[in-house]
Specification:
Length: about 300
């Protein structure tokens, strides 16, 4: 542990990061150090597997600001089934669940060790979550290989009922965009230790399944930066990138880009859906609707 010596007084906010000590952990935690929230921040880093041969944790301990505390939890074994543990989550087993309960703050945000935040991320989420069970930001997509900005995510991590996962999953919010009031979400937290899909992934979908019916706030700000590789993505997602103006050839081999005929088919389907919507009776959006989303003044 390093940072402020007063650990008993609850912090304004806690940040949970689980890691296998990839080098990107430095950028992730340093982005927490750079937050513009002036109050007390608790940072909990859970080590699922691996030794700190590169001295990442010592480097971060030395840089921890005085208004923050860095607590490292390294049990010496993995709780992930992938590494011989008991829990399905391949990325950290039970770590996010355990660290969420361990956090000495009512408000808990999550940051994956290969992502990072803009300086206003926590302060804007704290405003948005006021009186709500959870809150979320938007995210900016970054190419893992080149570190270049791809575009803003306008189709995946959008919240309840929205985006490409609206019909199948009721929407979705990326882990690194999320903040919860853990007293209001007490029964949500065990879902971090589970998985939805083969290979021990999809715990974020399990969490959102429990969150999506609860009152929420949204910042509307693109303060989370998410690394990804476009090569191998589903053609429908690549179609969305192209619609957003992304030159796919910048981020993947030309021979791996689907042919225009594939994208043309998605265009035609979209046109059909828009035409069908235009013929439906128009109903006032205020009839029978309970609005939970709030956008705080900035």
């Amino acid at each position: 542990m390093t940072g402020t010596s007063d650990l008993q007084t609850p912090f304004d906010v806690a940040v949970v990061t689980q890691t296998i000590l990839r080098p990107t952990l430095l950028q992730a935690v340093r982005s927490i150090f750079g937050q513009d929230h002036p109050g007390r921040i608790q940072i909990l880093v859970g080590v699922d597997k691996g030794g700190d041969d590169g001295g990442l944790l010592e480097t971060l301990r030395a840089e921890c600001p005085p208004n923050m505390t860095l607590t490292v939890i390294a049990p010496g074994y993995s709780t992930s089934r992938r590494h011989g543990g008991l829990y399905a989550n391949a990325s950290g087993g039970s770590l996010r669940t355990v660290l969420s309960y361990l956090a000495n703050s009512r408000f808990v945000a999550y940051l994956d060790d290969d992502n990072w935040w803009a300086p206003s991320h926590l302060s804007s989420l704290l405003r948005a979550i006021d009186g709500k069970s959870y809150a979320f930001s938007r995210r900016t997509l970054v190419d893992t290989r080149s570190e270049a900005i791809i575009c803003r995510d306008e189709w995946e991590s959008l919240g309840p009922g929205l985006g490409v996962y609206g019909k199948g999953f009721g929407g979705w919010v990326d882990t690194s965009c999320l903040m919860v009031d853990k007293l209001a979400c007490h029964e949500v937290l065990p879902a971090w230790s589970t998985s939805r899909f083969e290979g021990g992934v999809g715990e974020d979908r399990m969490v959102f399944e429990r969150l999506k019916s609860l009152p929420f706030g949204a910042t509307g700000l693109y303060t989370a930066f998410y690394r990804l590789v476009l090569d191998g993505a589903h053609p429908y997602l690549l179609w969305n990138y192209r619609k957003a103006g992304v030159d796919l050839a910048r981020f993947m081999p030309a021979e791996r880009i689907p042919p225009d005929a594939v994208f043309d088919e998605y265009d035609r389907n979209e046109q059909k859906e828009e035409a069908a919507k235009a013929q439906r009776p128009v109903q006032s959006p205020f009839v029978g609707t309970a609005y939970r989303i709030t956008y705080p003044k900035r």
